[in-house]
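Figure 3 (text version): structure tokens given as input.
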């Protein structure tokens, strides 16, 4: 399952930050905490500056903890063999078209004939959108250009349209 690269990138940053705050220095071991970690998020401008610092730290190869894999471009996560899973994946679907994509996948697998799609559940949402650091300005042209550069493979591999700011 893949999804919009920009939203995915911001959500990955929020997940990494959440886990760093939850685990403290345990996630970093003896390494120094990254520069973005102590920056405030009281305003949209502060949240955006903090996220830009996160991206700069990632670009410079600074240690960002064991959870940094969340921020890898999605294109790097496909066709990975997971040692604890017995099945490999052979389909890619876009989250934005979840029901249609799953129906296409189910219909292509004869051994699943007659199996219905699972009904949505009202379980716990895995989101950090209420976090003040989620107030990143996704209309900031400089930030969008950084994201498009960093996640270019996702735009190209999964046929997502880059924001206009990335074309300038």
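Below: residues designed for each position.
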């Amino acid at each position: 399952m893949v999804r919009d690269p920009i939203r995915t990138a911001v959500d990955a940053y929020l997940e990494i930050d959440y886990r760093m705050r939850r685990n403290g220095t345990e996630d970093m071991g003896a390494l120094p905490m990254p520069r973005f970690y102590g920056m405030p998020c009281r305003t949209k401008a502060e949240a955006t500056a903090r996220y830009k610092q996160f991206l700069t730290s990632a670009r410079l190869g600074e240690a960002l903890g064991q959870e940094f894999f969340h921020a890898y471009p999605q294109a790097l996560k496909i066709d990975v063999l997971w040692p604890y899973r017995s099945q490999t994946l052979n389909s890619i679907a876009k989250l934005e078209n979840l029901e249609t994509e799953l129906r296409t996948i189910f219909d292509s697998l004869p051994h699943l004939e007659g199996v219905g799609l699972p009904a949505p559940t009202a379980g716990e949402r895995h989101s950090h959108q209420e976090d003040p650091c989620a107030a990143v300005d996704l209309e900031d042209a400089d930030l969008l250009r950084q994201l498009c550069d960093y996640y270019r493979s996702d735009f190209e591999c999964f046929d997502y349209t880059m924001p206009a700011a990335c074309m300038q």
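Helices lie at 5-23, 44-59, 98-107, 141-150, 152-157.
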